[in-house]
Amino acid sequence: MNAYFLKMLLCLILFISFQWQLSAAEVTPDKPLLQETFQEPLSKDWFWGLGTWKAEKGVLRGYESGPRRHGPVKMRRFELGDGVVDFEFRLEGKARFAGIIFNGSQQRGHIVHLVISQDQIRVLGHAKKGGSENLLQQPHKIETGKWYSAQVRFDGPSMTATVDGRKFTVQADYIAEPKLTFGLGGDSGGPAGEKAGALEFRNLKISSAPTVQTSLSEAGRAEIRSEIQAVIDEGYYPGISILLIHRGQVVMREAHGVVDIETKKPFTVDQLCWLASTGKLFTATLMASLADEGLLSFDDPIAKTWPAFADIRLSDGSKPKDQVRLRHALSHTSGIPNDNWLKAERQLEKNSPQLAGYVAPQTAEDFVNACLKLGLVVEPGTKMMYGRPIDLAACVAEKVTGNTFITLMQERVFQPLGLQHTTIQPTPEELKQLAPLYSSTKPGIFEPDQFGLEVAARQNKGLSTAGGGVYSTLDDLGTLMQLHLNRGKHAGKQLILAETLELLYQPQPGTNGRYGLAFQIKDSQVNGHSRILSHPGYSGPVAWIDFERDLAGVLLMQSNTVQRTKHHNRIIDTIYRYFPAQAKSD
Hints:
- This protein is of the alpha+beta class.
- It has 13 helices and 30 strands.
- Helix 3 crosses helix 8 and helix 6 packs across helix 7 (392-401).
- This is Penicillin-binding protein 4.
């Protein structure tokens, strides 16, 4: 009996010890610093305000009164460094927006301001008193008369806000400054008092920042910065930006070097860049959304939507054993040759018998006809030949929906993810902001990459390429990668089923296990084994996800060099030393 009792006691102690270690390794619970009940009379720490404010039954209600000078605002003393602010808000009547602002000393003034209006979310930063900059602006619908939850989390120079389940992060050095007061307020609809509208707030809580194993140590950041700078110093890239998202939190978001060799303009985190082949990740996402709705299957023959494809032949005139399927197009195993595509488009092979009369495709039908003219050089699904035939995916998408590829990308990928700085057809103003593209074959020697620029220009006339026509920014590309890391969830909504996305990540026949459907597949042995799903681009970028490490990453650089893969690997290997591979808990 005693032996049994001791055995059970030992098991219990081991179990409790294991549970404690597991809990301690994941999260230290928030420590409440302020729990506001909103009852009259308000605490004297609510020291100043504009408009009329009432507190009743746990709700703070404010509206404008008298000649209109400013929307209602109520200020409270509370010193906050790193920490979390939770609250709920509601717009009533003609109220246009609600928000929370954090201030420094009276001499310092505003630091950062979250504004939530009926149609968008904005974050305004104030690097100095009297000045402001737009750190973030994203479309988002807010209904009047409905309660919404919001959270603001400060972690050094980073501020992560979650509104109505939608999360985003901004970063600026001054965000780390001490925040001595904060204010609730907004625009209640005008000076007509409650008749016009009102703002309401409730459940305000401020907590210490929870200790979660998502933060990258400062030593880690320093080593990654050092590696990036070392790569820049080798002379193949003028500048590089980096975004790392670990367990749903942005842990590094920086830019180094310059974007323009001539003007020495700094490379910034909001720089618009041509993604080249990294844009295939957007195409893969679009095709998954169409498959999710049953509009297509990755096993569909191209001939299902383009019947003429049933007659495509091998170079010896024989019929292939298998039809060319959508999965073949997305994995570069269609059997359609690629070697002469770009040369033909530049009219460098006018005398090629195979390409006699060739005209660069302007429509989906043109592209299909060009593929049929080229024919097959190998059986579909047997050999990977990287290149333009992936654009057949765009042809299929247009055919099954009746919409253009550009429209489909806008409606099914860019808009649902709130990607305001991602496009396939840049406006003249966006082209002015586009990072110059360089080519570098020797250290320190940068030449404008005319070939790449010509490719980019061609891709945005007529048929928009599925293979490399996207222009985007660090944050927008990071949002796409986070969608995949979250198994199709974004802002609390399941945009694409996880099982549909999983089809993209499976190695395809003929690729030696190294390519899925528009995703490259690599293994990492640094700090544990894991599988990296990624895609680089001609212009220098690379984006990846790693489920074992619960990590998404983006590197942007605008220079074409044969050293690109080596440099990507150097930086990623340095990053991985700080993120051990482990199974992600659901």
